[in-house]
Automatic annotation (TrEMBL):
<dbReference type="InterPro" id="IPR007413">
    <property type="entry name" value="YcjX-like"/>
</dbReference>
<dbReference type="Pfam" id="PF04317">
    <property type="entry name" value="DUF463"/>
</dbReference>
<protein>
    <submittedName>
        <fullName>Amino acid regulated cytosolic protein</fullName>
    </submittedName>
</protein>
């Protein structure tokens, strides 16, 4: 449970910034998503565009010229690593390479000085908002439901999922190893380690397989952070527990104790120190990758989004409720990398995200916070054009594929600009989901052509001013996430 001091600190954080006793409002914005979803790129582009006065027509405060300046300040939490913004900008803008992805939790404070739109507020408010951006792996968030699950529940669910056709071959080696032990065997460190390693290898294989499966807990098996190699991660689910009590000294008892320790010492503190203090949240999803992989991957993504939403708005009587001191009131579920599609498909991508979100909301029995969806590119690496082929004019995207990317027999060197016909998303987006998909056809009809591009070269104006990072609909995301706090 949250202690009194925690509560006091949280209340204080809410009320104040940390600068020299000045009181001004702050907002904590969580940025999450499974690995490679685009968190690092999003935060870097978010901050870069605000600091450098980017083109943000849908971000009202910026559009109406009310933002005086935005700058980085010392973050409020000394014990949390800082988000390495400067390094990421240097990589993105200087080298035109993608920055190092998120591997653990980190934080950054961006302070915005603005003029309030209303005369009343102008008189009373400081016109300063500190945005504390908290970046953390979605894998860790997916651990929260474990808090409500016993080792027996966790084991049963892990085996049920592992036996699904889409995962069965990937989990086979681990399940076979598991079949060689019985829960009532004597506890043995080496057995525990072999099982844990084999289980972790299966979870990793799901992540890296072309089927683009979303993650299963425990999240630290995939993103260990500072727990790499620690005994807290040396456990695995066991089959055939049948609700039996573990015999002291048995493998069952050993695994159960470690599972409970993982919840107490890893999951709970993470939730209390980071998640429970958030005001707003953006969840990034790689919908494009799932679309490419087919309906089973989309269903899997939907399952992950459902679990994520359930973590943010624990309902009455939910085990998480006791741990929450603030409530998240806005959540944005955003598909990034829309710059891989022609703009005609952006609304379709958004409609797909909308459908995933709507069904997740219904299934997670989620109420309270306002949820919006977006299809965007935090950094736009392509521009659009057309090519004529057989008398037909086709819309294309033009960019510089990363070195080593391939289309057909062509391998790119990282310095060649290329036009690609990316493929369309279907007009009727329902057809990409399992229940409407053509069973003969695993992937969507219009398999997308997907290569990774190098980040863009920054343009200069006639006056020689370098513009900030280009994007698609990043301004809409900003408006939803913090716009109302700058009114
Ligand atoms: P993280 O693991 O969530 O921090 O993911 P990153 O932000 O590191 O993004 C993973 C990869 O996705 C990057 O290296 C890029 O290749 C790609 N990516 C992320 N955001 C964008 C975007 O807005 N546009 C494009 N074209 N690629 C992106």
């Amino acid at each position: 449970l949250t202690t009194f001091t925690d509560e006091a600190r949280i209340a204080f954080d809410t009320l104040s910034g940390r600068t020299a006793g000045l009181f001004f409002p702050s907002i904590r914005l969580g940025v999450t998503g499974l690995s490679r979803a685009g968190k690092t790129v999003f935060i870097t582009a978010f901050v870069h565009n605000l600091i450098h006065g980017g083109r943000l027509p849908l971000f009202e405060a910026q559009k109406s010229g009310r933002i005086a300046r935005a700058f980085l300040e010392e973050q409020p939490d000394d014990a949390v690593p800082r988000f390495q913004y400067e390094d990421h900008v240097a990589t993105l803008v200087g080298q035109r390479l993608w920055p190092q992805s998120t591997r653990a939790v980190s934080e950054l404070r961006l302070t915005i000085e603005y003029e309030s739109a209303s005369g009343w507020n102008r008189m009373f408010a400081a016109g300063r908002l500190a945005v504390d951006i908290v970046d953390y792996p979605g894998e860790w968030l997916l651990d929260l439901p474990l808090l409500g699950k016993s080792f027996t529940d966790f084991s049963r669910e892990a085996f049920d999922l592992a036996r699904l056709p889409v995962r069965a071959d990937l989990s086979q080696a681990w399940r076979e190893l598991n079949a060689t032990v019985a829960p009532d065997d004597d506890a043995d460190e080496m057995t525990a380690r072999r099982l844990a390693e084999s289980f972790a290898a299966y979870l990793l294989a799901c992540k890296h397989d072309d089927r683009a499966l979303s993650t299963l807990p425990p999240g630290r098996f995939l993103m260990p952070g500072d727990l790499e190699g620690s005994p807290a991660l040396t456990f695995a689910p066991l089959s055939d527990l049948d609700g039996r009590r573990a015999r002291p000294g048995s493998l069952h008892a050993m695994m159960e104790r470690r599972y409970d320790a993982y919840k107490t010492h890893v999951v709970k503190p993470f939730f209390r120190e980071h998640i429970a203090r958030l005001d707003r949240q953006i969840v990034l999803i790689d919908a494009m990758q799932a679309l490419n992989a087919g309906p089973a991957a989309l269903a899997d993504l939907e399952r992950a989004v459902t679990e994520i939403l359930a973590c943010f708005r624990p309902g009455r009587g939910n085990f998480l409720t006791d741990l929450v001191s603030r409530r998240i009131d806005r959540i944005l579920i955003a598909a990034t990398k829309a710059d891989h599609l022609h703009h005609e498909s952006h609304d379709r991508l958004q409609a797909i995200v909308r459908r995933i979100a709507d069904r997740a909301i219904a299934r997670a029995n989620f109420t309270g916070a306002t949820v919006d969806v977006a299809a965007m590119a935090a950094v736009r690496a392509t521009r659009e054009g057309t090519v004529k082929q057989d008398g037909e004019t086709l819309p294309v995207i033009i960019g510089m594929p990363l070195a080593g990317e391939r289309i057909g027999t062509q391998t790119f060197d990282g310095n060649t600009e290329t036009a690609i016909f990316p493929g369309d998303l279907p007009e009727d987006v329902r057809t990409v989901f399992a229940e409407n998909a053509d069973p003969e056809n695993g992937a969507t009809d219009s398999a997308l052509r997907f290569v990774r591009f190098r980040p863009p070269k920054l343009e200069r104006t006639a006056e020689g001013v370098t513009l900030s990072l280009p994007h698609i609909r990043l301004d809409r995301a900003l408006q939803f996430l913090i716009g109302d706090r700058l009114a």
